[in-house]
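For reproducibility, we list the full input for the FSX complex.
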Amino acid sequence: MKRDEHVARAMREGGVSRRDFMKFCTLLSATMGLSPSFVPRIARALTTAPRPPVVWLAFAECTGCAESTFRTTYPWFDQFLLEIVSMDFHETLMAPSGEGAKKSLQDTLKKHEGAFFCVVDGAIPTADNGVYGMVGGRTMLELAREVCPKALATLCVGTCSSYGGIPAAAPNPTGAKSVKEALGLETVNIPGCPPNPINFVGTVVNHLLFGKLPQLDHLGRPLFAYGKTVHDLCHRRSHFEWGEFATSFQSPEAEKGYCLYELGCKGPETHNNCPLVKFNEGTSWPVQAGHPCIGCSEPGFWDRLSPFYKPL
Ligand code: FSX
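The corresponding predicted structure, in tokenized form, follows.
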């Protein structure tokens, strides 16, 4: 069976209609800052391009990133994601365990060296040679040192792997660090605690479409997702500031304004596209639900961004 037929069948069996799929491609193209003319190309890339192999390493974290990626955005998203990439190693999702899991990892490294994406969620404990984070008898530090340099690119999903995040918060007894700090290696960072999975998919799809990673800012973040601040895009800003742009995104209740800056909102210094893509099938996002942004996708989160209710 050809790959596009296989994907079509998998989607049908998962209850995903062609219309759902095209809506998703439209959202993806808007998120990536591409014109609507890219929608059919994205659909084609998702259903026909060879699936890039992925090794997913889970280190010091709460598993919120994997949960957010695989379970909540769209009811069918988890299954769909596994059609886009070939998840060759993911401790939580894969069938083998123990020695079988170790073998899967080694087989993938051998077969796809220089051609797989290494996705990392979680920070890397580095104190005392990394003994505070062990997987299968090896330190996370050792695993990362073995796997990441062999990848086509290391994609850090979540603030912990991107910048250290909560595990690196003071007093940080495990010496938790970002992948870049721990290994001295350039990474693509998709921060957020948790990040929006559409930004991970957009990064992979950019590679499928154009054969390269998206343009990054000085902190390694894809510009399509992190090029503007939450405040720049926020629905709660006066719609007069938004002009025509406002009418396409603002909800009527948000048009009244009610900026949460005085309640400590960190939107003015937090780079992320939460107001545009939202969470849970585009239902809402924290500020729309009435809570100030806590800056979870910025370097220095948690220490630098707290206390959360103190204005900047
Ligand atoms: Fe960190 Fe992710 Fe926050 Fe949790 O893997 S970014 S603590 S949502 O799980 O790493």
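DSSP finds 15 helices and nine strands in the chain. Confidence is low (pLDDT under 50) at residues 239-250. Both points were considered when choosing residues for closer inspection.
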